[in-house]
Specification:
There is one protein chain. By secondary structure, the chain is α+β, with helices and mostly antiparallel strands. The protein folds into two domains: 15-159, Up-down Bundle (Four Helix Bundle (Hemerythrin (Met), subunit A)); 183-389, paralog of FGE (formylglycine-generating enzyme). It is built from nine helices and eleven strands. A four-stranded mixed sheet has the order 10-9-8-11. Strands 5-6-7 form a three-stranded antiparallel sheet, with no helix packed on it. Helix 2 (49-68) runs parallel beside helix 4. The structure holds fe (ii) ion. Fe (ii) ion is lined by residues 55, 85, 142, 146.
Length: 395
């Protein structure tokens, strides 16, 4: 495998260059994969690489080319059914957990679909239509989200291969926790939360509004693997007093005794699987791949708590971020005055604002430039296949 260029990826300022660059990055993620790597779907919550490559293309075709490029005709009218994800108002779609059965169209046809849509996007962007440009901005951000999903879905796929193959031996996504980690103080007061003004942001980051915060102290660093090692050593997974009711029910049902991707060899050595291959667990490495239940239990075990998403946003400039997505104690809810976009794109974020928790920061797998202090990621509380960890706050 050749060196992955993920970290060195540049972010040009011109929109059509950024479009090309973003599209090229998805191909780069897949360039060392075989067609066999690109089709299986291990679980409903992950998708095959072929599907990601096609779905991100469908997004540009459906929401940008069809309404804004006159005379555009679809590459293949049947693709809308196969590659629409969850946009109910955009038409009927394939069942989510059967994406791995789409052996036809083959991978070459999906690449041809990408080329066709890219060429037409190039033509459209020459017309300087501001509506199309705004939607292209959204399409680029959408594809960047999928680029992180591609890496996490590949990790989950390869983890289910008995040989535990490396995706790319050079790709180091495991970060270190800094040794000097002072607490960051937040003073009691009223703070402005959310996005307003220039620059791209998702609708769920608006409107900007005021929030009252009590005095708080947040760790400047995220938690390390050592915390999880101590938790396991002290019977954390077996202690109901540390868990939410739903969390403990998840432990019992899943029989979980360590985080996803951790395992023990026959000689008792504890290892963790990474996209670069399996390695002994580094106690100073950033703890990742825990769900919201585990994050809460680890905070309880530490005599601490998880920050709220608002505390995180207020303190963000003083925190070491970008090592993992950080579970907060905040439920994913609309901000006061939130209004979803009209039409099918209103389904992008708003309809998920129940039964999910907010994650802040960004991870080592996040596409470059795809982060802001107001960014609200969200996942169900039992999801752990993303690069998710935690930051502690004083009670
Ligand atoms: Fe999507």
């Amino acid at each position: 495998m050749t060196t992955h260029q993920h970290i060195d990826f540049d972010t040009p300022t011109n929109l059509s260059h950024r479009f090309d660059s973003c599209r090229a990055h998805s191909l780069r993620i897949c360039r060392n994969l075989t067609p066999e790597d690109s089709v299986p779907q291990v679980a409903e919550f992950v998708s095959p690489m072929k599907w990601h490559l096609a779905h991100t293309t469908w997004f540009f075709e459906t929401f940008i080319l069809k309404p804004h490029l006159s005379g555009y005709s679809e590459f293949d009218p049947e693709f809308a059914f196969l590659f629409n994800s969850y946009y109910v108002s955009a038409g009927k779609r394939h069942t989510r957990n059967l994406r791995g059965l789409i052996t036809r169209p083959d991978l070459a046809q999906v690449y041809a679909y990408r080329t066709y849509v890219d060429e037409h996007m190039g033509r459209l962007l020459e017309q300087n239509c501001s509506d199309a440009e705004q939607l292209t901005e959204l399409g680029i951000n959408h594809e960047q989200q999928h680029q992180e999903l591609m890496l996490t879905d590949l990790k989950y796929l390869f983890w289910h291969n008995p040989l535990l193959p490396a995706y790319d031996q050079q790709l180091r996504l495991q970060r270190q926790v800094g040794s000097d980690a002072p607490m960051v103080d937040i003073s009691e007061g009223i703070y402005e939360i959310g996005h307003a003004g220039a620059g791209f942001a998702y609708d769920n980051e608006s409107p900007k509004h005021r929030v009252f915060l009590s005095e708080a102290k947040l760790c400047s660093e995220v938690a390390s693997n050592q915390l999880m090692l101590d938790f396991i050593e002290n019977g954390g997974y077996q202690n109901p007093l540390l868990w939410h009711d739903a969390g403990y029910a998840w432990v019992q049902q899943s029989q979980q005794t360590c985080p996803l991707y951790w395992y023990e060899q026959d000689d008792g050595a504890r290892l963790s699987y990474h996209l670069s291959g399996a390695e002994p667990i580094d106690p100073t490495g950033v703890l990742t791949h825990i769900n919201a239940f585990e994050a809460h239990a680890l905070a309880e075990f530490s005599g601490m708590r998880l920050p709220t998403e608002f505390e995180h946003e207020v303190a963000a400039s003083k925190l070491a971020v970008g090592k993992c997505w950080e579970w907060t104690s905040s439920s994913y809810l609309p901000y006061p005055g939130f209004k979803a976009a009209e039409g099918a794109l209103g389904e992008y974020n708003g309809k998920f604002m129940i039964n999910q928790s907010v994650l802040r920061g960004f991870s080592a797998a996040t596409s470059p430039g795809h982060n802001r202090s107001t960014y609200r990621n969200f996942f169900p509380t039992d999801a752990s296949w993303q690069f998710t960890g935690l930051r502690l706050a004083a009670r």
